Amino acid sequence: MTLPLSELVLMVAALVGAGAVAGVIGGLFGVGGGTVLVPALFYAFSVLGVGGEGNLHVAIGTSLLT
Predict the structure, then answer these.
(1) Residue 37: predicted pLDDT
(2) Please, which residues have CB within 8 angstroms of residue 40's CB and are 6 or more apart in sequence?
(3) What is the DSSP string of 27-55?
(4) CB 56 within 8 A of CB 34
(5) Are the CB atoms for 37 and 18 separated by under 8 Å?
(6) Which residues contact 9 (CB under 8 A, 6 or more apart)?
(7) What value does the mean pLDDT take over residues 39-53?
(8) pLDDT tens-digit profile of 10-36?
(9) What is the arithmetic mean of pLDDT over 27-46?
(10) Rounded mean pLDDT of 29-56?
(11) Backbone φ and ψ of 51, nearest 5°
């Protein structure tokens, strides 16, 4: 599945924003960034069609690797 360039730029901006929020929350409260990244990655993978039935597993695994 290919996305138009405008949607791809919006998706990248949303993921960068989620990463920034995860960093701020991690710095302020000492919690892991996965609390923000897993839902953001789950949504992004669902939109992009990555992972199929295991979207949540792929999102959690990706969050653990970052």
Answers:
(1) 86
(2) 14, 15, 18
(3) HHH---THHHHHHHHHHHHHHHT-SGGGH
(4) no
(5) yes
(6) none
(7) 83
(8) 889 998 999 999 899 889 988 888 888
(9) 85
(10) 84
(11) 95, -20
SS3 25: helix
At 2, give phi and psi (nearest 5°).
-110, 140
Q: Which H/E stretch holds residue 11?
A: helix 5-29
Reported confidence tier of residue 1, pLDDT bands at 50, 70, 90: low
Residue type, 66: T
- Residue 37 token pair: 């990244």
Q: Rounded to an integer, what distance in angstroms lies between the CA atom of residue 50 and that of residue 11? A: 14
In the DSSP assignment, the letter for residue 2 is: -
Instruction: Give the CA angle between residues 14, 20, 23 to the nearest 5°.
Output: 140
Contact 39, 2 (CB under 8 A): no
